[in-house]
Amino acid sequence: MAPAEKKKTGEVIGIDLGTTFSCVVVSRNGKAEIIVNDQGNRTTPSSVAFTNSNRLVDEAAKNQAALNPRRTIFDAKRLIVNCGGKPYVEISTASGEEEVNKTFSPEEISAMILRKMKETEESYLRKPVAGAVITVSAYFKDMQRQATKDARTIAGLDVLRIINEPTVAAIAYGLNNNRNKRKKGKSKILVYDLGGGTFDVNVLEVDGSQLFRVLTTGGDTHLGGGDFDQRVLDYFMKLIKRKNSVEDGLDCRTLGRLRKECERAKRVLSCQSQVKVEIDSLFQGKDFSESLTRAKFDELNLDLFKKTMKVVRATLEFAKLKKGQIEEIVLVGGSTRVSRLREMLMEMLDRKEPNRGVNPDEAVAYGVVVLAFNLRCLAPRYGITLHDVAPLSLGINVVGDVMSVLIPRNTSIPTKMSQIYHTSQDNQTTITFRIFQGERVMTKDCLELGRISLRDLPPAPRGVVKMNVTFKIDANGILSVLVEDNAMNNSKSFVAKGYKGNLTEEEVERMVREAKQMAEEDKRAKERVEARNRFERYIYDVKGALNNRNIGTNKWSRDKEKVEDAVREASEWLDGNGNVSKEEYEKSMQKLADVWNPIIRKVNA
């Protein structure tokens, strides 16, 4: 008998890669702990920006977005879900003293955010991360999941599992429910997950805190809180144009400032009935001041709210469940704080109150780290068994371009299914299988994932030559396909990546190389910023010491003037040199120190 395989051990993290915000969590002393970033916040904006001197990720990128809108990227996760082509963003970056245009794929942008999450965790743990579990929207298609895998490769992360956000939120709910000992046995819960850019609905069967079985899933990868912000933005833009008799659109900087306030107003309306939106010198030198009521906000977004309810209804119907069979409602995502949405959901589900034992912003993060440690068996006491499902049907085209489904939607994964197909023409020596994902009858209405061609088939009447087609979905939801002509020992395989919108292996390798290069650039940029900050603090310290110590007497008057001149010179140099090397900042700081240190030593003697 072969020896049992050893389970891997080491620090494992969970990453909730959100459209608008992301967070990272680790299990410490038996508890899931969300790690604060270098700004002291538990969530990090999923934003990347480029300035003349460096690249910014997280809070720094979001904070300067209004002033630098053309070189700030947000909602990159949404770009990943654009499967109509191969979306790239073009940004003007600095190369020496010149500006150059550079294109980035959504995978690269997401990799920058993932790398920031990894750095946040490693700074906290003070050692490398062994592995991670990353969340995605439950309604992500196969190539969208592959794009996320490409992003983690570029970021240099060892990912144990890519898992659906509502599923891991249900894990957090199940553990919390078990701790409170509210209910034993099986229960059916509905997870309503509305974040900044994506919307998911999952119906799960939970048995205590051990067994989590996804029954059905639905959603929309282009619906979220960002759309609510846009409706408010459009409303205020119309007001501005009407009051100022303007026909043309507003410039990017004005839109950026207004968008930021629209997002703030949305958050305030979650707990207040009215909010004042005020911005100094917003347009044509005029101040902007308008009130927004919760009723108006609800009116602007009512059709979007109804759209989410339609998905809930369809998901319940697909699961063949009545609304009364749902025992718990779990809300996930910051956008679920919208009061009208909660009311509509309660009205639909027999006035059932949502479960408030799980923080909507952090439920996914808590669940994902529990799953991460369960996979590495570092916390066997959790004993979790997870059964997820395929979000959409998978199949091939047959005669008439009809979709022949091998793996139906909501099939439990991982899974493997096979079916026999035969030639459709006499003496056919080549057959091409086109692989699709979707719920429509005709393949033209579904998403094509790729093609496999089997050649050198023996000439024969149609229907004689038969091929076995096998579809396999792994635990991450990634599809692989195998086509075999067993009689001729002829086979071809395919992994659903690199077709219509995803990255080829060569592109991923190139991006990994560039990511390493950018990591060095980021390190130098960080050192440069830290050196500048040290110099600036030193100038303020010297100024403060001059005011606090008795250096103004006649005995020290000349020395004080000398220091004041040196401080003035240092301040002017700093104001005029915002993008010099770390060494130049240190050299200028030392120049000031050479003046200040001998004098302060004499004063203290």
From TrEMBL:
<dbReference type="InterPro" id="IPR018181">
    <property type="entry name" value="Heat_shock_70_CS"/>
</dbReference>
<feature type="coiled-coil region">
    <location>
        <begin position="505"/>
        <end position="532"/>
    </location>
</feature>
<keyword id="KW-0067">ATP-binding</keyword>
<dbReference type="InterPro" id="IPR013126">
    <property type="entry name" value="Hsp_70_fam"/>
</dbReference>
<keyword id="KW-0175">Coiled coil</keyword>
<comment type="similarity">
    <text>Belongs to the heat shock protein 70 family.</text>
</comment>
<protein>
    <submittedName>
        <fullName>Uncharacterized protein</fullName>
    </submittedName>
</protein>
<dbReference type="InterPro" id="IPR029048">
    <property type="entry name" value="HSP70_C_sf"/>
</dbReference>
<dbReference type="InterPro" id="IPR043129">
    <property type="entry name" value="ATPase_NBD"/>
</dbReference>
<dbReference type="InterPro" id="IPR029047">
    <property type="entry name" value="HSP70_peptide-bd_sf"/>
</dbReference>
<dbReference type="Pfam" id="PF00012">
    <property type="entry name" value="HSP70"/>
</dbReference>
<dbReference type="GO" id="GO:0140662">
    <property type="term" value="F:ATP-dependent protein folding chaperone"/>
</dbReference>
<keyword id="KW-0547">Nucleotide-binding</keyword>
<dbReference type="GO" id="GO:0005524">
    <property type="term" value="F:ATP binding"/>
</dbReference>
